[in-house]
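The protein record quoted for completeness.
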Amino acid sequence: MQIYTGLVREFKNYFGTELKDTPTRGFANIFYINKSRVRDIAFFFSEKSVNLKNILINDFKSNYEVIYEYFNEYIPDNQYLFVITEVDKDSNEIDSVRVAYPQVESYEDEISKRYGIKFLYFKEELEESLYNLPVKLFPAHSAKNILAQGVFNRIHHINNYFHCNLEKNIIKSVNFKTGWLYRGIIPLLKYKNWGKENLALVEKICSTSSFHHSLAYSLAMESIINISVSNRVKMIRTIYCELERITNHIFWFVNLMYLTYSFKEYHTLLKKVLYFLNFLEKELGIRYFEELNYIGYVKDILWYSLEDLRETVEEIYSSSFKNIYNSIYNSTLKKQFKGLSTLLEENVLESGITGPNVRASGHIYDVRYFSPYNSYLDEDIIDKWEVVTFNGGDAYSRIQVRLWELKNSVSIIKGAIDYLKNDTTKIEVLDFANIKLIADKIGISVVEAPQGELVYIVKTSDLPGKNNLGSVSIQTPSMNNFFALKNFILPNCDIKDFPLIVHSMDLCFNCIDL
């Protein structure tokens, strides 16, 4: 992989006056372009080994805004390049970029189903979208050669259906219908108050990443209204992020033990994580990681609670880590998962996979390190952790990454607690009731949620005097991992391994049906 230090400059020179460059605070470049050039831009970036990670949509009254998120970790400082174009709802057509990036076919299919946008050279006949069906939904019918497999997470109570085309019990291709859990949260964000009301909404998107959704939205809004937060706020946000990561990962292992019939370990881990949540609720009032984060500030952690928090985190880590370690490194589980659902190294970037799943394929990428936020690279924290990677690319490597990330999270929390014990700064509660948003301003944030890269793109209304948002686009890690699972991981796997493979990806179906 070459290092393209002048890529952005070369991009500007190549397309010249056709580009409208919008500077942002931080790590991203934003360019507005005529829709007739989206395919040319795709070929330009493809030749430079830049990855197209996502396609997002902003739904306005008369048009759609199509946002292409390009990424290359080797671009210094500004690793994200967002190319934005408009599609009139009357014509509703735009060139497909799958010629340059074949992996985006699933994204374009999904956008076509949800919004009716026609991607030219897209010849398949679209199925009717569940988003347009009545409220009363039923699982789709199964043809003779198709096996419908339900995924049910017993802790988070979310489900969805995959349709696997089989040949002698081997999965040849996978189709799926989304929309089972669609709740219309994103459209509401444009009409609710951009402060506390929207924060309360985004916290409801995902039960396992509530704080990370709140944080991502807050960072985007803080960029728009141009405010900076204190080091204390950053440190406490870092603690909450890692507490949520620990909780998510241990719950994930609880489910893993259940799926592998390791019921003794299942009950042991479940008791430990419930004890941990009871402590958080009693001492910090944060059992569900909601109503902790606000725009410009965060719920403080009192000095006398810091040492109790340290001791409890160490206790839950040491006991849980030992149980999980003994389980996954025994010969039975290792044999069961080693080599299962391997993602080939050459397909890692093309697949769009993210989070622990991409790090399980030997790819050293973590938003906390490469596009830092909060306090992850502060001198009090940076020497406490490292990006965890394993090279197998299989389900077993995904298990190992999540296990060793528990150790990382505990070290980060302990470093942050050491800082807070010597910090006497008071957190000011900020009131934004009288703040008027500047029209047509954009804010972007990227955070490393427990499942992977979470992107928020927030834009204020283009009408002066309007104090509400014009659009909010959210790209969740489960969307990326869902399409990677469909296109690169499940094909050629045995259907009997289906539940274990899907669980290894740590999908949140609320985030997929966003």
Q: What stands out?
A: The longest helix spans residues 231-259. Residues 122-159 have pLDDT under 50 and may be disordered. The CA atoms of residues 44 and 156 lie 42 Å apart. The first strand starts at residue 20 and ends at 23.
